[in-house]
Amino acid sequence: MTGPVNWSAVRAVCFDLGDTLVRPEEVATTGQVAEVLGIGLQEARALLGQGAKRRLVTPQDLAHELAAGFGRSRLAGQLAAVLMSARCRAEDPPLYPDVPDMLAALRARGFALYAMTNMLGSSVPERDPDVFRELLDGVFYSARTGAIKPEREAFAAVEDTVGLRPQELLHVGNSLNADIRGAAAAGWHTAWVTRNHAAGPQEPAVPTVRLRSLNILPPLLPARAAAKTTTSEVTG
Q: Higher pLDDT residue, 39 or 236?
């Protein structure tokens, strides 16, 4: 724990997907794209973050765009295979074993539950996977909101849709920059998931709570979600 816990005003919890709720691939899609194109991982992340995570696109179209952009049209087929595999995985995501019971416990206590992810537009399923529709109240994809974490607009998209203020929202994620610093800058409460860190990672430099497992989360939250704040209470 790197900061005090005062989550009495929290009414909704928003989770990152990859490596928070969902088990990551051995080699992430971005890494596979980098390998096919013969470029560095950081270059691939920058390339895909510029536009591919901010709009919906088919795996085939994105594959052709990437191949053409590097003057390597012959690689379109390989790229399409990588992107199609990612799409199939997103349609049936493998959850960590501590996720279903944790979400069920929070829902039973009245918390609204969401997920927010910087996902390639080519991976976004046409409709949320059954497991998410059963366990969550909604999923916010960067390819649909047009904003990626840690941008303030990504968090504002959630606030505007669910009708809650920053202090009523808790964001739980594994990325120090995208999830923890981004959410903290937006005024949200945060919890930092570090389940796969073999050694202690760098400190976040913002108040947060470190979780080695999501089983730790429910006991830290109130027994019931905070009641809706009325207009008179907000304006005083």
A: 39
Alpha-carbon distance of 47 to 66, in angstroms, equals 9
What pLDDT digit, counting tens, does each position of 152-205 carry? 999 999 999 999 999 999 999 999 999 999 999 999 999 999 987 654 556 778
Tens digits of residue pLDDT in 77-110: 999 999 999 999 999 999 999 999 999 999 999 9
Bond into 150 cis (ω within 30): yes
211 membership: H or E segment, kind and range = strand 209-211
Whole-number Å distance between alpha carbons of 23 and 134 = 18
DSSP-H helix ranges across 38-146: 41-50, 59-69, 76-91, 99-108, 130-135, 142-145
Buried b (16+ CB within 10 A) or exposed e, 158-195: bbeebebebbbbbbbbbbbebbbbbbbebebbbbbbee
Give pTM, 2 decimals: 0.91
Residue with tokens 């005003």: 9
Q: How confident is the model at residue 135 (pLDDT cuts 50, 70, 90)?
A: very high
What is d(CA 160, CA 178) in angstroms, rounded to the nearest whole number? 19
- Cα separation, 147 vs 119, whole angstroms: 11
**Residue 20 DSSP SS3:** coil
- Which residues make up the CATH 3.40.50.1000 domain(s) of the chain? 12-22+95-235
Superfamily per CATH, domain 12-22+95-235: HAD superfamily/HAD-like (3.40.50.1000)
227 half-sphere exposure, CB direction, 13 A CA radius: 5
